[in-house]
Specification:
The structure holds two protein chains of two kinds. Helix content of chain A is about 40%, strand content about 20%. By secondary structure, chain A is α+β, with helices and mostly antiparallel strands. Chain A has a nine-stranded mixed sheet with strand order 2-5-6-9-1-10-11-12-13. In chain A, strands 4-3-14 form a three-stranded antiparallel sheet, with no helix packed on it. In chain A, strand 12 and strand 13 form a beta hairpin. In chain A, helix 10 runs antiparallel to helix 11 and helix 13 packs across helix 16. Chain A is elongated, with a radius of gyration of 30 Å. In chain B, helix 7 packs antiparallel against helix 8, helix 8 runs parallel beside helix 16 and helix 10 packs across helix 13. The chains are: A alpha+beta, B alpha/beta. The interface between A and B is large, with 30 and 45 residues.
């Protein structure tokens, strides 16, 4: 197959309308696997979280995990789906070494959740715009094992000397969420795709059904893209598999639009195939052809009884659903008096929950945002850890704020207090004492420092005297420096002006 | 009683062991000795677990000495069909492809046998993955019928039935997907019960067709079957198709053994053309006895039974084509062609080509075809509809009668080699037993005499609605007692000496 030079995105969109479709796999965070009691912890030694059932040993039988079924129904409800009254699992038959039984227990023509939707918001030049993404189905299945191809240069199966298989992942409950084709997004297609996956991730997190870590594969996305000329029939689609970050979702859609447009403009046809996104270059390369659909010989799984969730149960689960992320964001933004933009910043930094908790603990919203979104995020990034894992409590933040309000410390010193708290030096008061961080409030000491600064900068002193009050900053800065930040800048300024006999 | 330990019913042995008239070790040893004497001719066993059996027997004896009796069958030996997983003991399902596999776990049935103090002597021969009616499809050679070593012992559980009939074990476990307990029982003059689907856990039973498979007892007496079903039956949370309800009191029913006032239906479709004259004759005589015992006999029609065989040979291969996919040489058992150059797909193909026998391949191909896109509705889908119609036939019949009866098999035991190359002729052996599996009912086969023309055992099948297993034992117990009164002994006593 010939490779084509992609054409610029704007040119592609000027000629073609994109149709996108997204299939998202979410690994549920249940304690045990879909059909057995093995743990689901990530990162264990290979083949240590296995049993006769998830190894598919002869004679073993699956038993469905009730918690997983509850989770998928909650997901379906959060995505505005109908929950069917009766459905069955199905076997998807194909041979592959990562599949212990050489069939995957999944769902075929009887998915448990159908006909939902999710509204997503994307920023445009004309302001935020809402797109409704229709959801065709949400179904459950078991994950496969994981193959590692060893001995080759690329880590891919071609050229590998041998392959290792780890069945720890085999049988972990997976939920597949499939959208209907999304049309009419135009140039916003990549942004809509990203916003959809982001929103989905936040919903899963809000439901507490998955840790939705794309980098660990607990949320995986396949992006379908096709192009058609306006008004014409939909084109042939490609499917970019296992996109593993939000940014990549956007890039995969964009890259496919650019590539397919070039193919079509060159008079060629788009091949129905799977593709892989290369994280380094942002372009996709072909995987396996889907021109001839594989026959999976689906049939109802005879080892499992049908699933028939009672209406009472579904209603109960509906009644106990948490607030939708979008509604929650709007509510909090209003309560805290912040803009959508500021709210997005908190969401992107992943500190919304933390800010909310701090506010609940009594910290002023502004201060909670400032510390979590600023200094603490900076420290977490520096250390390469999740900000939520930092060893600082909401009580610590509250105390630091009290110390600032009382004038005992200032913002700059507060950062040192957090540094001490994070270093395990104790509570904020302990750090203040141990590090001697109190603001210098002795007027005599401050006046001495002011006199010293004035003497050092006679020209500035002269300017202030002549009424250029704004020049006072230089002297205040010098005093703050000489007191190693332990002074109250406002107080220094007042004393300085008084000393020179000028007023604001 | 020492001289004829091997000829005693399990119930008698269990009581004697509990009363310390004989030790479990002595009983076990007697059966191990019998196996050593005759099994080179019968070939009922694929593996004899001498050490395990004797150790288990000693444990029972130690408990009995302390006054602990785990169950009425504590200390009684049993032969286990090689399709059930038993920890650490080779489990082959009669196939080369599982050669060398020792399961790391016990089937629920095995767990319950152990918990009841039953002594597992070893694993019995079977048609490969339970596909067959003669045990000739075992990769390890056929089992011989103790009534005539030139004849088949039935299948797929021919090993279990032959072990019982040759006094190598008083008890055995079989599995029945389309008749694999009942047909061998019929042709070996023994008792076989297929419990209600979901009545005995399938966990650890290597699946042939998941929606049809059911493990059950193979014994020489009706009471022994009741005792064994009580041990292995009941809800198991590890099998989601297992019925969460108490097992009907089959032992009490076997004791009561009463058919007075019962309405018995003769299934019109399960007689006539294709049924051997002597089989029909012994069957009708047995029905007359039931009438004498106070039952009312009527003829009933189950019109869709005519389609049972066809539906069965779509559903079974479909399920088995998927169930047997896992035997790919990747994780356990045989691996062929792994020369470090061949691809995974090639190794899987070569392994399956070498590891599976012709009948298994035939059914995998049939099932793969029946499930294919474009054919699914016409084959698998239609077969499921027939299944529903058969269930309705049963429901309608049971609205009128309490039990249904028929000959278990159309003929007595045929000669080894006679039908092995004619799959259709082989499949027809199960024509009377298959409807019960499709509907999920339970049924029993018990011996009702020898066919005059060949002197070989004939079986009568009793069929009852799901979860009415106890009714089988009312009929079986009554008929067995009446026949014993007539003959002065059980039919199995007439089996030629080996």
């Amino acid at each position: 197959m010939s490779t084509v030079t992609p054409i610029p995105f704007d040119d592609a969109i000027a000629t073609f309308d994109p149709v996108i479709g997204l299939e998202v796999h979410v690994e549920l965070g249940t304690r045990t696997k879909m059909f057995c009691g093995c743990p689901t912890d990530f990162g264990a030694e290979p083949n240590t979280q296995v049993c006769p059932v998830c190894l598919g040993l002869p004679g073993s039988l699956p038993v469905a995990n009730a918690k997983a079924i509850e989770s998928i129904i909650r997901i379906g409800l959060a995505l505005n789906c109908d929950i069917v009254e009766w459905c069955r699992m199905a076997r998807k038959n194909y041979f592959y070494p990562d599949m212990p039984k050489d069939y995957q227990v999944s769902q075929y023509d009887e998915p448990i959740c159908i006909n939902g939707y999710l509204d997503v918001t994307v920023d445009t030049d004309e302001g935020p715009r809402v797109f409704r993404v229709d959801i065709e189905r949400v179904h459950m299945e078991e994950d496969t094992g994981k193959l590692t191809h060893a001995g080759g240069a690329t880590g891919r199966i071609h050229g590998a000397d041998y392959s290792l298989v780890d069945y720890n992942r085999a049988g972990i409950p997976l939920v597949e969420i499939v959208t209907k084709p999304v049309v009419g997004t135009g140039a916003l297609a990549p942004a809509v795709a990203r916003a959809y996956v982001t929103e989905l991730r936040d919903i899963m997190r809000g439901l507490g059904v998955s840790d939705v870590k794309m980098e660990e594969g607990s949320l995986r996305c396949d992006a379908n893209v096709s192009l058609n000329r306006p008004g014409a029939e939909w084109g042939t689609r490609s499917e970019t598999k296992n996109v593993n970050s939000l940014r990549s979702v956007e890039r995969a859609v964009r890259s496919e639009i650019e590539r397919q447009a070039a193919v079509l403009l060159a008079g060629d046809r788009v091949v129905q195939e799977t593709r892989h996104l290369h994280e380094d270059t942002g372009v996709t390369t072909p995987g396996r052809s889907k021109e001839h659909a594989e026959d999976y010989r689906y049939f109802p799984e005879p080892d499992l009884v049908p699933i028939a969730p009672s209406r009472e149960w579904v209603d109960e689960l509906r009644a106990t659903l948490p607030e939708q992320p979008s509604a929650r964001r709007a509510r909090l933004a209003q309560a805290w008096g912040i803009s959508d933009f500021d709210m997005q910043a908190l969401v992107h930094a992943g500190v919304l929950d933390l800010v909310e908790e701090s506010v609940a603990a009594g910290v002023a919203p502004e201060a909670a945002r400032k510390w979590w979104g600023g200094e603490l995020t900076r420290v977490a990034n520096e250390r390469g850890v999740d900000v939520a894992t930092l060893s600082v409590s909401h009580g610590d933040i509250l105390r630091v704020e009290e110390l600032i309000a009382s004038g005992a410390i200032n913002d700059k010193l507060a950062r040192q207090v957090f540094e001490g708290v994070l270093a395990g030096e104790g509570a904020p008061d302990d750090v203040v004492t141990a590090r001697g961080l109190a603001v210098v409030s002795d007027d005599g000491a401050l006046l001495a420092a002011i006199d010293e600064a004035l003497a050092a900068q006679p020209d500035v002193t002269e300017k202030i005297r002549s009424g250029k009050v704004q020049a006072a900053g230089a002297i205040v800065g010098a005093v703050m420096k000489s007191t190693r930040g332990q002074a109250d800048a406002a107080k220094v300024r007042a004393l300085l002006l008084e000393r020179l006999g000028v007023s604001e | 009683m020492e001289a004829d330990l091997i000829r005693q019913p399990a119930a008698v042995l269990g009581d004697a062991i509990a009363a310390r008239e004989v030790s479990a070790r002595e009983v076990t040893k007697a059966h191990l000795d019998r196996i050593a004497q005759v099994d080179d001719r019968v070939h009922a066993f694929l593996y004899v677990d001498t050490d395990g059996a004797l150790a288990a027997a000693d444990a029972v004896d130690a408990e009995i000495a302390e006054g602990i009796r785990r169950s009425p069958l504590a200390g009684v030996p049993l032969a286990l069909k090689d399709v059930l997983a038993m920890k650490g003991v080779p489990t082959t399902c009669g196939s080369r492809i599982l050669e060398g596999w020792r399961p790391p776990y016990d089937a629920t049935v095995v767990e319950r046998l152990r918990a009841a103090g039953v002594i597992i002597l070893g694993k019995t021969n079977m048609d490969e993955f339970a596909m067959g009616s003669s045990t000739e499809h075992s990769a390890y050679g056929p089992t011989h019928n103790p009534w005539d070593l030139e004849r088949i012992p039935g299948g797929s559980g021919g090993g279990s039935a032959a072990a019982i009939a040759s006094f190598e074990a008083p008890l055995a476990i079989g599995t029945d997907t389309g008749g694999s307990i009942r047909q061998p029982a019929a042709v070996t003059g023994t008792v076989g019960v297929k419990p209600t689907y979901g009545g005995v856990s399938r966990f650890g039973l290597v699946a042939l067709a998941s929606s049809l498979d059911q493990a059950g007892p193979c014994t020489r007496t009706v009471m022994d079957a009741a005792l064994l079903q009580s041990v292995i039956g009941g809800y198991d949370p590890r099998d989601s198709t297992s019925i969460n309800a108490p097992v009907p009191d089959v032992v009490a029913a076997a004791e009561r053994a009463d058919v007075r006032g019962m309405r018995i239906g003769l299934v019109k479709e399960l007689s006539g053309e294709g049924y051997q004259a002597g089989v029909e004759q012994r069957f009708r005589e047995a029905v007359a006895i039931l009438e004498d015992l106070g039952a009312e006999v009527v003829e009933v029609s189950c019109p869709h039974f005519d389609y049972a065989l066809g539906a069965y040979y779509l559903i079974l291969p479909s399920e088995c084509s998927s169930n047997l996919a896992r035997f790919d040489g990747m994780r356990y058992g045989l691996r062929v062609g792994d020369d470090a150059d061949r691809s995974v797909e090639e190794v899987m193909s070569l392994t399956r080509e070498a590891g599976f026998g012709a009948e298994v391949k035939r059914r995998i191909m049939l099932g793969t075809y029946a499930l294919s896109s474009g054919y699914y509705a016409a084959y698998y889908g239609q077969a499921q509809k027939v299944r529903t119609l058969i269930q309705r036939d049963f429901a309608q019949a049971f609205a009128d009668v309490d039990v249904l009866v028929s000959p278990t098999t159309p003929t007595t035991a045929f000669r080894i080699g006679e039908k092995v190359d004619d799959p259709l002729a082989m499949y027809l052996n199960d024509i009377a037993t298959i409807p019960v599996n499709l509907a999920g009912n339970c049924a029993m086969s018990l011996p009702v005499g020898l066919a005059p023309e060949d002197g070989l055992p004939v079986g009568l099948q009793v069929m009852v609605p799901p979860q009415a297993d106890d009714r089988l034992y009312l009929v079986g117990g009554a008929l067995e007692a009446a026949l014993r009164d007539r003959w002065g002994h059980l039919l199995i006593e007439e089996v030629p000496a080996l």
